[in-house]
Design a protein that fits this description.
With 131 residues, the protein is α/β, with parallel strands linked by helices. The chain is built from 6 helices and 4 strands; from the N terminus they run H-H-H-E-H-E-H-E-E-H. The protein has helices at residues 2-6, 18-27, 38-50, 68-74, 87-96, 123-127; strands at residues 56-62, 77-84, 103-107, 119-121.
Length: 131
């Protein structure tokens, strides 16, 4: 994964073009290891532990990727809108959360249509300094 990302080092600290992420997901269905890396499991556990156990009326997840965390967040939300800019990743997120009618995964490039949410999660984006 790191070797594949190295070719994008020129974008460090700048807006990263969409094609960069499309290229990453074109090479793997889980390029970041969300489903199998211990680090990702720990991060999900820590994220969920930091959230209130009370259900959220409506939540917004930015950068949902393949929907691993999305499915777990959906269990705590009356309504969850999860967005990403990579259509291939969104297809997986939709499949993963298909049994949860309260979860909507959507392709969005802009946050202009952002409505009021009781909770907004930017977990991975903030972790990498992209937000």
């Amino acid at each position: 994964m790191l070797k594949r990302m190295h070719k994008y080092k020129d974008f460090a600290g700048l807006h990263i073009p969409d094609h960069v992420f499309e290229d990453i997901y074109a090479t793997s269905s889980d390029p970041y290891g969300y489903t199998h890396r211990d680090y990702e499991r720990q991060k999900r556990s820590t994220t969920l532990a930091a959230l209130s156990r009370d259900p959220y009326m409506n939540a917004f997840e930015i950068g949902c990727s393949i929907g691993v965390l999305t499915g777990l967040l959906g269990e705590r939300c009356d309504s969850l809108l999860s967005v990403d800019i990579v259509k291939r990743a969104l297809q997986q997120a939709r499949q993963r959360c298909a049994a949860a009618p309260n979860v909507v995964s959507s392709f969005q490039r802009s946050l202009k249509a952002l409505r009021e949410f009781s909770e907004t999660l930017i977990n991975k984006l903030a972790d990498e300094g992209n937000f």
